[in-house]
Design a protein that fits this description.
single chain; mainly alpha; 2 domains; globular
Amino acid sequence: MSGSARRARRGRRAALAALALLVSASCAGPPPSPERYRLTGSGTHWDRVGSDRVFEDVAPRYPEFFAVVLDPGNTNEPDLIPLRDDLESRPVDRRNYDALNAVAIAYFELNYRAQAERGGSRYLVHSFRATKLLAVPWRAYGLIDEPRLRDAILDFFEDAATSEKLRAHETAGRLARVVESLERKERDPRRLARIRALVARIRAEAPQAE
């Protein structure tokens, strides 16, 4: 094959590669909005959804909170007031959702740590701290009647009770009671049906959970 033919072939390959990248980018569409619960697809991990590094996005907003939560040797109570205030802020914007995802990250970390140390001296400390985190979105659900935010909070509770995240299944029963109590705060028929279906699913899949 002559040099000119080889160059022409390389040129066609480069053009095809560029076209493939262009098509891939156009099919992918814009990145999803951060104004949502972002950990659903993160499998057994809590810090990544695909190429979206959730922790890196929300950690700068709550450095003192994460400094306590992510230190295995720190058993102090993290300050939940900044997250609570952001999650309950009006009008609803990205700040609310960042707070929700920060709560979720902390919950999965502390819940895993508690279950990993079940029977140990720190089990109750980590378990109580994880339970207190659940109260933050539970309270916001009753105070903020904004459909998308309420849906996002339900996404978190569903993920915490039914996903494959490490050790989450062991405490699913705790979530059944929390989610069921949201019925008193909800008037929308669609979300009421979702709440009831989720409670039924949790109890069916984890009947012996705490």
